[in-house]
Automatic annotation (TrEMBL):
PANTHER family: BLR6905 PROTEIN, HTH-TYPE TRANSCRIPTIONAL REGULATOR RUTR. The keyword Transcription regulation applies. Residues 14-74 form the HTH tetR-type domain. GO terms for molecular function: DNA-binding transcription factor activity; transcription cis-regulatory region binding. It comes from Sphingomonas kyeonggiensis. This is AcrR family transcriptional regulator. Keywords: DNA-binding, Transcription, Transcription regulation. Pfam families: TetR_C_9, TetR_N. Residues 37-56 bind DNA.
């Protein structure tokens, strides 16, 4: 009996827009900077630099598209976390681990947001802040207020908490030179990422809990 022919496997290649975004992301990670040029991106992607303007209008447009690609999908997860049926302590732990996982994948994210906010017109800077900073701050505020209502969190200023948490989560990934020269660590692997997430979470929980000694 003749065997049934198998359908051919179709491999879809990334579009040129995706290739440009992937190249930009890779360069920022490799060089530990967001200061890259059209020529850098073209060389890394193997594509003509004119395609940046074709797909995104400008480098600013491409950088904003990169931010949306990297972070845009996380806000739905954040909203689900805030609405989840769990206590505020659990939510905060999930939130910290989630932020560090995002920075592990995209260590340039905060620097790119800051660079765009400083170097572009006020309307663009406002859009970036509202799109990326406000949802994080609002979610954290909701979790803190829930924890206070449950009697497990002290009263915490949400604004100060936001800057403290983001700074703690981000600093490992922008401090690669310190890692190398002060601690002999050449790369941030997944084990270090997980250890850092546990460390930051424990420090943070001890600072916000009414009774830290009762937290497992």
């Amino acid at each position: 009996m003749a065997s049934k022919a198998k359908a051919p496997v179709v491999r879809l290649e990334a579009s040129s827009a995706d290739q440009l975004l992937n190249a930009t992301s890779a360069l920022m990670i490799e060089r530990n900077t967001v200061d890259i040029t059209f020529a850098d991106i073209a060389e890394k992607s193997g594509l003509n630099a004119a395609l940046i303007r074709y797909h995104f209008g400008s480098k600013l447009g491409m950088f904003m598209a990169l931010l949306e690609r990297d972070a845009g999908g996380t806000f739905d997860d954040l909203e689900r976390l805030v609405k989840a049926d769990m206590d505020a302590g659990q939510k905060l732990r999930h939130h910290v681990h989630g932020i560090i996982k995002v920075y592990y994948r995209y260590p340039y994210m905060n620097r790119l947001v800051a660079a765009l906010a400083v170097e572009t017109d006020s309307e663009t800077a406002r859009f970036i802040s509202e799109r990326f900073s406000r949802p994080l701050a609002a979610a954290q505020k909701a979790i803190l207020e829930q924890g206070e209502a449950e009697g497990i969190f002290r009263k915490i200023d949400p604004m100060l908490f936001y800057f403290s948490l983001i700074g703690m989560c981000d600093h490992l990934f922008i401090g690669r030179h310190s890692l190398r020269y002060a601690f002999g660590v050449e790369d941030i692997d997944d084990d270090l990422r997980k250890a850092y997430a546990v460390h930051v979470t424990d420090l943070l929980m001890r600072s916000v809990l009414v009774k830290p000694e009762t937290d497992a």
